Amino acid sequence: IFPLSKGGSRTSPANYRPLSLTSHVIKIFERVIKKYVVEHLESNSVLNVNQHGFRSKRGTITQLLEHYDTILDALCMGSNVDVIYLDFAKAFDKVDHELLLAKTYNCGIQGKIHKWLETFLKNRTQSVIVDGALSSPLNVLSGVPQGTVLGHILFLIMANDLSLSCKYTNISCFADDTRILATI
Predict the structure, then answer these.
(1) Where is each Reverse transcriptase domain found (predicted)?
(2) pLDDT digits (tens, 9 = 90+) for 127-155
(3) Is 158 within 8 Å of 143 (Cβ atoms)?
(4) Which of 15, 44, 144, 156 gives 8 a disulfide partner, CB atoms 3.0 to 4.6 angstroms apart?
């Protein structure tokens, strides 16, 4: 793990993002797996249309345009609008491996690819390197490894059903950043 500063006090561990440094061989495998997983998710319309993060032809601009369009439509109809902005703290680090693996399986990612993902997530250890000093390895019990090729898409699978559970609202997501909008 390489701690990447997010800004703020450099003495606070909370102000660092843990980037996983993996071997080049693993990155090649990840790219192959990611290509298969993304093609499967997109061709089967598995990912929620309200998720704009880390997807082809979607991003912060499409999320922002849809959000403002929804607000303008509501205001033009004489409605008021309430918006809740959510940013889940340490969202990538808190992903439960068993739940994520169940969700990938239920999405149709099964067989050898699923087994590879299970191996990729489980039985991991991590060490932290700071100023050339390497810590002792610790077991990784949760989370998707940040800074890896697969980390983002695995998180999207994990968070995919979030927007399905909000009735009577308009929800828009960019990875773990979520906007919930309701007209009143």
Answers:
(1) 1-184
(2) 988 888 999 999 999 999 988 999 999 99
(3) no
(4) 15
Q: Which amino acid is at 74?
A: A
Which amino acid, 29?
F
CA distance 122 to 116: 10
The structure tokens 């889940």 sit at 88
DSSP state, residue 137? P
Q: Determine the average pLDDT of the residues in 95-113.
A: 97
- In whole angstroms, what is the distance from residue 17 CA to residue 3 CA? 6
Instruction: Work out whether strand 16-19 and strand 2-5 pair parallel, antiparallel, or are unpaired.
Output: antiparallel
Structure-derived torsion over alpha carbons of residues 102, 104, 109, 112, reported in degrees to the nearest 10: -70
CA distance 50 to 164: 9
**Which burial class, exposed, middle or buried, applies to 166 when counting CB atoms under 10 A from its CB (0-12, 13-18, 19+)?**
middle
130's enclosing H/E stretch is: strand 129-130
pLDDT band of residue 100 (cuts 50, 70, 90) is very high
Distance from C-alpha of 46 to C-alpha of 40, rounded to nearest angstrom: 8
Query: What is the pLDDT at residue 153?
Result: 96
Would you put residue 2 in left (φ > 0), alpha (ψ -120 to 50) or beta?
Answer: beta
